[in-house]
Specification:
The structure is a homodimer of 684-residue chains. With 684 residues, chain A is an alpha/beta fold. Chain A folds into four domains: 246 residues, NAD(P)-binding Rossmann-like Domain (Rossmann fold, 3-Layer(aba) Sandwich), CATH 3.40.50.720; 159 residues, Rossmann fold, CATH 3.40.50; 70 residues, 2-Layer Sandwich (Dna Ligase, domain 1); 117 residues, D-amino Acid Aminotransferase, Chain A, domain 1 (2-Layer Sandwich), CATH 3.30.470.20. Helices cover 34% and strands 21% of the residues of chain A. Chain A has 21 helices and 31 strands. In chain A, the strands form six sheets. In chain A, strands 9-8-11-10-12-13-14 form a seven-stranded mixed sheet, sandwiched between helices. In chain A, strands 21, 26, 27, 28, 29, 30 and 31 form a seven-stranded antiparallel sheet that branches. Chain A is flat, with a radius of gyration of 31 Å. The two termini of chain A are 34 Å apart.
Chain lengths: 684, 684
């Protein structure tokens, strides 16, 4: 994709010299920013723009453009792409709106665009986007007028599924002194999608941190693979989280694991930082652009006692320690204190130090302390004649942070842009104690993050994105067979058609037995009176058969062994349209049904990760031995979770599975699956 | 306190004409803002300032000042107050630092100041503060230079226990176009405290909304009473929430209800809005200054599709409905749409409307819709040449909000101060979708808030703020006696000193019985092997006595009736230093010990509020009848909670109580208290 971001020659479709024309802004932006390649405006009416000839068609252009940018009405896009194909253009940026984002009727048009592009081997951005920016070569392609003082070259690249969000990130990164490297407005993602851009940005030397704004996820598994394989920090803001509405919650797992929770789980597994709003996204990009927090000891410097208290509260909330400053540190400060009214503590209240320039020296002294992993400087209420000195403190603090390899962040009154360093990267500035400490906490978490290993199944699980296809309930025999096939401890059972076979089976399995309806259609057997437990004799079994047949009309039955009492847990899984197979674990009974206390991962997972799931539920104490009861066999449980996750990954036709309960025994005792429901959906 | 905020004559202590003098800023501020009363600078060296004579002492001043402001070294404060007293001054503002906030050794100095003030009947602000501001009469008393363009008269008054926070609130309220009426920096609260200021601000006609920043709470009960009795919204940011450290968690309730949770509970009971950081505080003050959200139907207007999605997500998260716009509404919009590429939905994507002035018309149309309770307008990426038009939209939106009596808020790119209306109250502006919708949600919650009734005990519970005094464990007899005295269903029991008395008591109570150690010192009886349950015969009882005496050396025992099985709950309480008696309820066993699933209130509570507590725990389904078990007698439970809360309020000497468990039965069945521990602390 290098050719898209580093073109030598650019064709711009849809240009005229009318002042209302939008495509002319593209040409003007390139000129204003001093793009050094050739630019060929194209428009039906010809004429000229900024002293540059407007070609009537791409055929008229002499050399072959590397990329073509289009801002023509949607219905003219296929023809324009066709002409690009004939000319030999390899990348197209379709800014035009009026596709499926507006009306479903445009689906045909989109198909046509895709087809033509495929024919000519053209890859394209959009449609319905404000296109791309590359600060390395002044490639400024949006149709909105942009100005050099609105941009700043920096280490962060962002791909956004919304032009408005892309512009806001641009403004924010510029304004806060971080800067950006490449910006992409992805539009409808008809061809290139976030994974394509991400793959490129990961390979891009100039990009140090990647931000993505996504309204849907094109292929969650590929996203995870890409993120897990790189050391570059990736921040994702995923919106569109309101639930889709009327989903039938016939399976626990479907009800317990909403799409958005799956997205959260998948991103966390891959080491992606999920931001929950634009402020968090910007804050995350800011903090990940500077030196990392390598430990948990903060030095807090504050001009106001109130802000010091708020920072100390936040430090405690996020699990930081307040570093113990050395005597040497305090000695250096005492020299500058006027009235002597200052306590030598951390947080350090600098309120009595009136020489603001000295603040930077204090920052340096704090960074020199061995026991300090990062510094927060709060400089709340600044009067206007202190702006210059404050800016200089922030600028020097940024230099010192780079020099000492430790993070420094500033907290200052919200929305006072005059404090922000305007010409170079200073410290990240936060309007609020809580946000500053939260950012430091992210930095530490990032630094402590283990290598991500995305477990792999035997075959790469296919996504069934349409969710279409015939679904059917598996019979108990089929479900239990699947489970046994992957080594899961399903209870011993036999399928029988009536009392005669039943008595024989019960003899083999051994009393007491359980009798269940075996017809695949009956999902909620207990509620339907289709389960009888504790049958101790043949005559009791015969009586149970009689009553169950009469009440339910069932023709197929299950005789099942009776599992000893133990701790109930549930396992489940389903296929997610964006991430594929998903696995879920929780404690049985009230914990799931009342408290929804479950752990969730994108499958497959390793036994180690399954262990994290087990330790991740709130009620974990119950498995670890609560009130003197012996601890459960969580090692076996972790293996069961791993095995089920592999089963789901290898069998995308299993659209839902619900193991409820699995009875778990003490260390070394394993467990027994007492009931399981399964739904099979063959791909349409 | 009217005299403090509306003085005619002001004496300012500590003034000199040295450029380094800080007190001169007070005089200059008053002059700069055009204060119309008389100002008398006082300083040992005399001379003059701004052409005004500096008096050498207050005696030299002719008329009696209404208030005196002091910025002299701490050690001179007593003498200065004494001179004010002799002169007849009624209010003093002590700005000087160097009191106990700096060194414990200054406690004597503080006592002296208090004593002298009391002698002369003087009330004072501070010490260690930057004093007060009243925009109504240009009373600008801080020692930091302030300028008229940094201030704006408005409906919000703030009292802050930090000068830095007061200044930041001042800047924020000014900057965001809301303005402020009275500002108070409370300092060390040696005399006047937050409740005194709150009481005054509630009575103050010009103050419509009150904000408090508190690092400690002087008297939580009075704060609750004041807040519950007024309709004025009160927002409190309470910091200093990190736990104090080494508290022995011998009682569940002590461990389960930290000081900060008590503060949260108490504020919520009184209808106070607790903000968690400065941004929330400012946001809350902003939204509570405009027309309230009277329902749950939002109209969302957005220039960018991405922001529309983020707003819709947030609306869903906060439980709002997206209003159904009428056809008439859409008709009015269609007239302005250029390319026709716009979906007629809510959120309305205004991206294709290029005439920004029309946005205000859309806001008006939305406000006219009967199905719309409030409007959010997002105007994310604004290019520089649109600033003027944007400001005008926000200004008109503010007017329209007042005209239609519905709230309008704006979301716009963070930290772009040029968008803020500078001369008059426009709409509140939020940098983030989530924050805007959160604010709307607060507005709705406020509007739906029921009248707060703070339950009262027989006598007004006294605070034991020192926490000092001798503590002792109550004997079981004493504890059970207390519980029975207030009508709580303690199990039948008898205190006995050995087997002979024990057998007699068991006969009366009826087998099976429970045998317990009765010595008051043994708190964790079960762990100490001091409880035997299910004793069915006299011989078994004798054996149990023998074993228990041998193992524990106990000399006092309890024979107790055996309660039938039921649902275990716990009740507890303790005395909080800031709020007095506190009551706590939770489900027994794992729910409390593993999940810490508890409800907490400042006592006393009514049975109705106790019902809210019961419905407020996560595991409430267990009480309502889970998996076919009959519902518990929650009516009786609510009455028990009420009674215990009254007991705690009437007996401040009960410093801790732990009822664990109370066994609860089905509807009408009541419950039985099976075990209770109690600690008594007599005031020092």
């Amino acid at each position: 994709m290098h050719g898209l971001f580093y073109p030598e020659r650019i064709a711009v479709f849809g240009v005229s010299d009318s002042p209302l024309n939008l495509a002319r802004n593209i040409v003007t932006n390139l000129d204003r920013f001093g793009f050094r390649g050739e630019v060929f405006p194209i428009g039906r009416e010809g004429e000229s723009l900024n002293g540059r000839k407007i070609f009537r068609s791409i055929e008229e252009v002499g050399p072959v453009p590397d990329i073509a940018v289009m801002l023509v009405p949607a219905r003219f896009v296929p023809e324009a792409i066709e002409s690009c194909g004939r000319k030999g253009v390899k990348y197209v940026v379709i800014q035009s709106g009026g596709f499926t984002e507006f009306a479903e009727a445009s689906r045909d048009l989109e198909s046509r665009v895709k087809e033509i592009a495929r024919k000519w081997n053209i890859r394209f951005v959009g449609p319905n986007c404000i296109s791309i920016i590359n600060m390395e070569n002044s490639l400024i392609l949006p149709f909105v007028p942009l100005y050099p003082n609105e941009t700043r070259r920096g280490p962060v690249s962002v791909a956004a599924q919304s032009g408005g969000i892309m512009l806001e990130m641009m403004q924010g990164l510029n304004f806060e002194g971080i800067g950006f490297n490449k910006l992409i407005s992805m539009g409808n993602k008809l061809d290139l999608n976030e994974n394509d851009y991400l793959e490129y940005l990961i390979s891009d030397q100039e990009t140090k941190v990647v931000g993505l704004y996504l309204e849907n996820i094109s292929d969650g598994r590929r996203l995870m693979e890409l993120a897990a394989a790189t050391d570059k920090p990736i921040v994702v803001l995923k919106s569109n989280t309101s639930p889709g509405g009327s989903r039938v919650a016939q399976f626990h797992t479907t009800a317990l694991a909403g799409d958005d929770q799956v997205a959260s789980a998948g991103m966390a597994q891959a080491g992606i930082h999920r931001a929950h709003n634009l402020q968090e996204m910007l804050d995350d990009l800011k903090i990940l652009s500077i030196a990392p927090m390598r430990g948990g000891r903060l030095g807090i410097l504050s001009r106001s006692g109130g802000h010091a208290v708020l920072l100390a509260d936040a430090a405690h909330r996020y699990g930081f320690e307040l570093a113990a400053f050395s005597e040497g540190f305090f000695d250096r400060i005492r020299r500058e204190v006027r009235a002597g009214v200052i306590s030598m503590t951390n947080p350090l209240d600098m309120g009595d130090i009136f020489n603001i320039a000295f603040y930077a020296d204090i920052v340096e002294s704090a960074l020199q302390e061995e026991g300090v992993d990062g510094v927060v400087i709060s400089h709340g209420a600044v009067s206007k004649n202190e702006n210059e000195a404050t800016r200089e403190v922030f600028r020097r603090a940024g230099e010192l942070s780079r020099q000492y390899g430790k993070p420094v962040v500033a907290v200052t009154a919200p929305r006072r842009e005059e404090y922000f360093p305007t010409r170079e990267l200073g410290v990240p500035v936060f309007p609020e104690a809580d946000l500053a400490i939260r950012a430091m906490s992210l930095s530490r978490a990032r630094n402590m993050m283990k290598e991500r290993k995305i477990a792999r199944a035997g075959r790469w699980p296919a996504l069934n994105k349409s969710g279409r296809g015939q679904s059917r309930a598996a019979s108990p025999a089929e479900a239990y067979g699947f489970l046994k096939s992957c080594g899961l401890p399903a209870a011993r059972f036999a399928v029988v058609n009536g009392p005669a076979e039943g008595l024989k089976a019960a003899e083999e399995i051994g009393y007491p037995v359980v009798l269940k309806i075996g017809d695949p259609g009956v999902i909620h057997k207990t509620e339907a009176g289709g389960v009888r437990i504790g049958i101790r004799t043949p005559s009791a079994l015969k009586r149970a058969f009689r009553e169950m047949s009469r009440a339910s009309g069932a023709r197929e039955f299950l005789i099942q062994e009776t599992a000893p009492a133990g701790t109930e847990v549930i396992l489940g899984g389903r296929q997610d349209r964006e991430f594929g197979p998903v696995i879920l674990f929780g404690l049985g009974g009230i914990f799931v049904e009342v408290l929804r206390d479950v752990a969730l991962r994108v499958a497959p997972v390793s036994a180690e990760e399954a262990g994290d799931m087990i330790r991740g539920i709130r009620g974990r104490a119950l498995l670890e031995g609560f009130r003197g009861s012996p601890p459960c066999d969580t090692d076996s449980l972790a293996k069961y979770i791993e095995k089920l996750s592999l089963l789901l990954a290898d069998h995308p036709e299993i659209s839902n599975i619900d193991i409820n309960p699995l009875i778990l025994y003490g260390k070394g005792g394993g467990g027994i699956i007492v009931d399981a429901k399964m739904e099979i959906t063959e791909k349409a």
